[in-house]
Amino acid sequence: MRRIFKGPIARSTVNTTGVLLLRLAFQVITLLVVTRMLGSAQFGAYAASAALAILCGSLGTFGTHLILLGEASKDASTRGAILSYALPTTLIVGSILFIPYATLALLLIRHTGISVWVVLALGVAELLLQPLIVLATVEHQAHGRIARSQLLIIMPLGLRMLAAVAVWRIGLNHALVAFAFAYLLAAGLGLAVAARTLPLAWPRMRDWRLARLSELQQSAGYGVLALTALAPGELDKTLAMKLLPLHIAGVYAAGTRVINALTVPVMALLISSTPRLFRENAASAPRATRPSRLFPLLFSLALAYGLLASILLRETASLIALAFGVGYRDLAQVLPWLALAVPAVTLRIAAGAILVTQSRPWIRAGFEVSGIAVLAISAMALAPGRPIAGMPLALACAEWMMAIVGWGLVWRGNQT
């Protein structure tokens, strides 16, 4: 245990936490600026559209980024063979998904006054450009360059923050449209820089090929779990827009972004642990070297941090609401209810990360799909009659169910 705390995972976690804290700063500043720029009602509609784009974009690589991460963690020479079909797969899947995304998003915003250009810009950024950035960053992650991979991920966030501040200070009439195109430009610049940082260039287009059926079957499970992993944290904002008054939906969306920010240290630990977990769970690894000792440690850290973050969120709810401005005063009532879900969120993402490295993507996807069903049913039952507490309680029900089931599956898999 002492070696684990002093070993490469601990060092990488500290470095990665520093990078992710920078990411947190970018996200918090952007969130505060955009919420003040748009107001709670328009922010709720924007957040729902962005959540839908992020949700669809999670399928963009069709799981090939996790195939690349797992295989390159064990043998760096495999990256070219995987990228030769991962790159075209990502572009094809992203283009196909753009149609249902745009259709649903336009239906979602039809009575909100948000421009169609906002939907299109968000879609291109999240469905086409961001998945390509992910492919670049997992190469660095596979070789232990965790902090560098996260710097590349947060670069578009930093550019987006600068754009949000600029649009807000200039006071443009169509501020959201300007911000959406800046969002798209930030993703494009981030992709260009990420591709330039790779030790080896990506395969040229003439070396690309369509994925074989066996390769698609292998990556499909990882693609689905990328979707299901994000769905509980993004789908709720879309549900909130339909089930709650637009103002309260915007307040709720802002509150869930605060929860996302609080999970940064746990995400750093899991990102840093993933390459080792992949190597030690490899089929060729002797049973004695497999990381059973890491599981209790990851569980304890995720639970302890989640409880601490939950208490902190409850105690500082009024101060957080004050930072968002007068239009978000209801946030002080929403955040204590959202705090109930925080320990479950940290436990759920830890269990999900471990199941991926155990090559059990469909099992992880299964319990997360169940959580999505619980979220939808609970939201429809609780939200209409309880505007402040309903959606947070629905989220807590779903997250705790997934946390309990997920860790049950981890322990069971470690004993077989």
What is the compact description of this entry?
By secondary structure, the chain is mostly helical. The protein has helices at 2-6, 8-57, 64-74, 79-109, 116-142, 146-170, 175-196, 213-243, 246-262, 264-280, 294-315, 317-324, 331-338, 342-357, 361-382, 390-415.
Task: Write a structural description.
By secondary structure, the chain is mainly alpha-helical. It is built from 16 helices and no strands.
Any key phrases for this structure?
416 residues, mainly alpha, 16 helices, globular
Write the layout of secondary structure elements.
Elements: H1 2-6, H2 8-57, H3 64-74, H4 79-109, H5 116-142, H6 146-170, H7 175-196, H8 213-243, H9 246-262, H10 264-280, H11 294-315, H12 317-324, H13 331-338, H14 342-357, H15 361-382, H16 390-415
Helix pairs in contact: 2-4, 2-5, 2-6, 2-8, 2-9, 2-10, 3-4, 3-5, 3-10, 4-5, 5-6, 5-7, 6-7, 8-9, 8-15, 9-13, 10-11, 10-14, 11-13, 11-14, 12-13, 13-16, 14-16, 15-16
| Number of helical elements | 16
Number of E strands: 0
The profile of the biggest β sheet is: none
Give helix and strand order, one letter per element, not per position.
HHHHHHHHHHHHHHHH
Silhouette? globular
**Approximate helicity band:** over 70%
Low-pLDDT stretches are: 1-5, 283-291
Mean pLDDT: 83
Class by SSE composition: mainly alpha
Tell me what portion of residues adopts beta-strand conformation: under 5%
Terminal CA distance: 23 Å
